[in-house]
Design goal:
heterodimer, A: 276 residues, mainly alpha, MetI-like fold, 13 helices, 74% helix, globular, disordered C terminus, B: 335 residues, alpha+beta, Rossmann fold, OB fold (Dihydrolipoamide Acetyltransferase, E2P), 6-stranded mixed β-sheet, 9 helices, 19 strands, binds adenosine-5'-triphosphate, binds magnesium ion
């Protein structure tokens, strides 16, 4: 009896998991399909699922009208640059908070996180004006800077939780074994911290890649990443569903591939080190 | 050489005094066990000696040299942690050899020493495995290997066997003692298991509430406990304490008799009368828990099998030569 109940439960939860997975994936699938339709078929009612006239003309048009590679390059520079700089600042910060905490450490961490609770639109005007007078509007440096600052609290939090997980005993064992701080760092801490660093890096890359608020507001063309590239297809002249879909598919493809190949690290990253 | 001397060592964490002035002489080559109830400061004292914690007062001398300002690595001690604290990303070989690598020894010498240590500890087949691919006992041996390979002045052990199952614990207990005797290296061993303390130690330090209650050989502690605390802590089952009339007769506030020093007779004899509440028959021993009325519960131990059962009346006769006497403040009275 008990066994049958468990197999049935497993079957039900498997089915539910697939259903939810499909529900979440469906918009992306639909977008992918729409990118191969003609503009007319893209919003035909009833919609056709697979039996339509497959075409790649949208991709050709999109590439012709706006330079995909240019935007993709910007995305790579902005996401990669902001992530690297954030890590450079966050590693020592999280390190010292995890390994030599003071009475105020918890407060500082909470304060950092609280900055993420403010809606960014609240500071849009001042930031815009500052950027304008500094000449940072539509510049890659400006976007790297703002995304880096925006994600820094999360990066520090994640690294802090990972570093906290490294048992103190092991560091003390290294000290007893005669390792100096520098060698402790190279031989013991860094290798143990690599999984945590990797998931933080991946998650932050994705967050920065998908960031749309600041990139849309602070860039127009020369520094514009893929988010702007997508947005340019929902224009006042009307919505071009098929082309919008083609642009979006192109924009998310790199990060989708990256995410696919680093699933394990990502899941670890998303659970914030709670599950071992 | 590995002679360790503590002089008035104190430690406080903020306003809380944890170690309240410890004086201790540990002779070169001896096996000293720190024992005491949980939270009494055993680990703290060991970490002070290791240098992982700074003293708040007093001196720690290793071979006559004050080391309180010397970093852990330079004290020439090695430590085995309760959690083993192996480097998870290194092989057994890497773990054992790490200290030698840090000391800058040439590769072939490291290899030779690591292999010798591994052979002593029966770890040779596992040299290229990672710690997660080892059993608890094997991990423990790697941790010990890491300690011995550096040929330190002294080993520091913090409850190294407490994560092992009972059978393995006994086996490792013997192995550690044998290894220490063979190497002749001073060892300080922390445990809260008094059987471990009694069986392994040359000398035992009984700690309670951050104070050293007594320092002596296992038999000294058993035969001449300095106070009520040591008397109650050393020995299993625990010593019986009796206050009131029988104690006054002996000119003491409390008298103590170990369960094995109570002669058990069927009802009617002299001595202390009582009813057996529980009788435990182990074959090799019989333990009787006797309700002795005004005297409270008494434990008696008989070597061998004794066919008495719950509800039987017995009389317990303390061996007069084995009665321990204590004054009001709990200190032992001699003579
Ligand atoms: N870093 C610290 N900060 C504050 N108090 C501490 C610190 N380390 C230990 N203590 C306190 O010091 C006391 C002694 O701790 P210690 O770890 O030495 O006990 P122990 O004898 O090893 O106990 P156990 O047998 O449970 O391991 C405890 O009350 C503990 O709470
Ligand atoms: Mg302890």
């Amino acid at each position: 009896m008990a066994r049958m109940a468990t197999t049935r439960r497993v079957m039900i939860s498997t089915a539910a998991a697939w259903l939810f997975g499909f529900l979440i994936f469906f918009p992306i699938l639909w977008m992918g399909l729409a990118s191969f339709k003609t503009e007319l078929e893209a919003f035909a009612i009833p919609p056709s699922f697979l039996f339509f006239h497959w075409t790649t003309e949208n991709y050709a048009t999109v590439q012709e009208r706006s330079d995909y590679l240019h935007h993709a390059m910007n995305s790579i520079i902005i996401a990669g640059g902001s992530t690297l700089i954030a890590l450079l600042i966050a590693i020592p910060a999280a390190w010292s908070m995890a390994f030599s905490p003071t009475k105020r450490t918890k407060d500082i961490l909470l304060w950092m996180l609280s900055t993420k609770m403010m809606p960014p639109v609240g500071v849009l005007v001042p930031i815009y004006l500052i950027y304008k007078s500094l000449g940072l509007l539509d510049s890659r440096i400006g976007l790297v800077f703002i995304l880096c600052l925006g994600n820094l609290p999360i990066v520090i939090w994640m690294l802090f939780t990972y570093f906290k997980e490294i048992p103190r005993d092991i560091l003390e064992a290294a000290r007893m074994d005669g390792a100096t701080i520098g060698r402790e760092l190279v031989y013991v801490l860094t290798p143990m911290a690599i999984p945590g660093l990797a998931s933080t890096l991946l998650l932050n890359l994705i967050l920065a890649w998908n960031e749309a608020f600041w990139t849309l507001n602070l860039s127009t063309s020369s520094a514009a990443p893929l988010t702007t590239f997508i947005a340019s297809y929902s224009s006042p002249e009307g919505l071009f569903w098929a082309k919008l879909s083609a642009a979006s598919t192109l924009a998310i493809a790199p990060i989708l591939v990256l995410g696919w190949f680093s699933q394990k690290q990502l899941v670890r990253g998303l659970t914030f080190g709670a599950v071992k | 050489m590995g002679q360790i001397t503590l002089q008035g060592v104190q430690k406080s964490f903020g306003p809380v005094h944890i170690i309240k002035g410890a004086d201790l002489e540990i002779a070169d080559g001896s096996f000293v066990v720190f024992v005491g109830p949980s939270g009494c400061g055993k680990t703290t004292l060991l970490r002070l000696i290791a240098g992982l914690e700074d003293v708040s007062g007093g001196k720690i001398l290793i071979d006559g040299k004050n080391v309180v300002d010397t970093p852990p690595a330079k004290r020439g001690l090695s430590m085995v942690f309760q959690s083993y604290a192996l480097y998870p990303h290194m092989s057994v070989r890497g773990n054992i050899g790490f200290g030698l690598k840090m000391a800058g020894l040439p590769k072939d010498e490291i290899n030779r020493k690591v292999e010798a240590a591994a052979a002593t500890l029966n770890l040779t087949p596992y040299l290229d495995r990672k710690p997660r691919e080892l059993s608890g006992g094997q991990r423990q041996r790697v941790a010990i290997g890491r300690a011995i390979v550096r040929e330190p002045k002294a080993f520091l052990f913090d409850e190294p066997l407490s994560n092992l199952d009972a059978a393995l614990r006994v086996q490792m207990r013997i192995e550690v003692t044998r290894l220490q005797k063979q190497l002749g290296t001073t060892a300080i061993y922390v445990t809260h298991d008094q059987v471990e303390a009694m069986t392994m130690a040359d000398k035992i330090v009984v700690l309670n509430g951050g104070k050293i209650e007594q320092y002596g050989s296992p038999l000294e502690l058993y035969e001449r406990p300095a106070n009520l605390f040591v008397a109650g802590f050393i020995g299993s089952p625990k010593m019986n304490f009796v206050t009131g009339e029988p104690a006054l007769q002996k000119g003491a506030a409390t008298i103590g008799v170990r369960p094995e020093h109570l002669k058990i007779e069927r009802d009617g004899g002299g001595g202390w009368q009582g009813t057996i509440a529980v009788a435990e028959h182990l074959g090799s021993d019989t333990f009787l828990y006797v309700d002795a009325g005004a005297l409270g519960m008494l434990t008696a131990r008989y070597i061998g099998e004794l066919s008495l059962h719950g509800g039987d009346r017995v009389s317990l006769m303390p061996d007069p030569a084995r009665i321990h006497r204590f004054d009001e403040s709990g200190n032992a009275l001699r003579g």
